[in-house]
Amino acid sequence: MADGDPKLPLSDPEALTRIAAALERMSPAPLAAPDFDEAPAFVWHVAPERLVPVPRINRVDISLLIGVDRSRDTLLDNTRRFAQGLPANNALLWGARGMGKSSLVKSVHASLNGDHPGLKLVELLREDLPTVGRLLAHLRTSEHRFILFCDDLSFSHDDQHYKSLKAVLDGGIEGRPDNVVFYATSNRRHLMPRDMIENERSSAINPSEAVEEKVSLSDRFGLWLGFHPCTQDEYLAMIDGYCTAYGVKVDPEVLRAEAIEWQATRGARSGRVAWQFFTDLAGRHGVSI
Asked: Does 71 share its domain with 142?
């Protein structure tokens, strides 16, 4: 170094410490896996990557899910086999919004967790799919069994996140860990909008191949469970079930009239609308839920 040149920061131990600290803040090392016995469920967060325990899951009792009997029984049987260490399929719950898709996943887990405390629910956000490989590395080495849950899964025209999902389903050399099963919910059966599927087909040189990669992603789910709009009788039965479970006593004719008026103002009938009506009803009657 020539005379009069300023001292380089790399020769200053304090400067090196500050640089290292700054780099650590910009790209922190992933945290160690938590104690999975700490909670029944965890949420995967990034920046920094960590599994955050959820001591109390927001859910409803499985007996209160009306009009989804076939999907309920199928998913319950599949999850029970998985909890027992037997082969089980990944599941895609698709269909009408507000019909209990995510509620069913959480309720099935809760109904089995008592007999199988080693069964854990891990929620993964769609936008965090690129980090799923590192999440699986945490889960793969554990003795517990994990339902990896992604709610409202869908992909747009230029979305590349679906490629990360293949590692969870059946792609890659390692494949899906034996102690992990993947459950996803979506309003779309093929995980992408129909108008985008048709647009790619119409503009592609080979229409049959244009969307095959994205559409075939849904084929990698062993179980497809469809959810369809409920009838008025099912809608009213949901509300009756909530009233019985929480001890809200209302004249049946009044309850029916108010429930029908509520769904008419919403322009829709679904399990979500039924729960929103019951929340209002319970509040008016001074009942905690």
From this structure: yes
Cis preceding-peptide flag for 48 (omega within 30 of 0):
yes
Hey, how many other C-beta atoms are within 10 angstroms of the C-beta on 123?
Answer: 22
Please indicate, yes or no, if residue 246 is contained in any of the structural domains. yes
Range of the domain at 111: 36-227
Q: 279 with 171, same domain?
A: no
What's the CA gap between 99 and 7, in Å, rounded?
67
CA distance 15 to 172: 43
Question: Of 17-26, 62-71, 102-111, which range is least confident?
Answer: 17-26
Does the residue 172 lie in any domain?
yes
Which residues contact residue 103 at a Cβ distance below 8 angstroms, ignoring those fewer than 6 apart?
Answer: 59, 60, 65, 271
- 51 φ/ψ angles, rounded to the nearest 5 degrees: -105, 120
Of 87, 80, 142, 143, give the one whose Cα is nearest residue 113: 80
What's residue 10's pLDDT? 55
Predicted structure pTM score: 0.80
Question: What secondary structure does DSSP assign to 10-77, as a single string?
Answer: GG-HHHHHHHHHHHHHHSPPPPPP--GGG-SEEEEETTTTEEEEESS-----GGG--S-HHHHHHHHH
pLDDT per residue over 194-204, tens digit each? 555 455 555 55
Q: Is 129 a member of any domain?
A: yes
Is residue 95 classed as helix, strand or coil in its secondary structure?
strand
Q: Identify whether 149 is part of a domain.
A: yes
Number of domains in the chain: 2
Band the pLDDT of 134: cuts 50, 70, 90.
confident
Which of 227, 244, 266 finishes a domain?
227
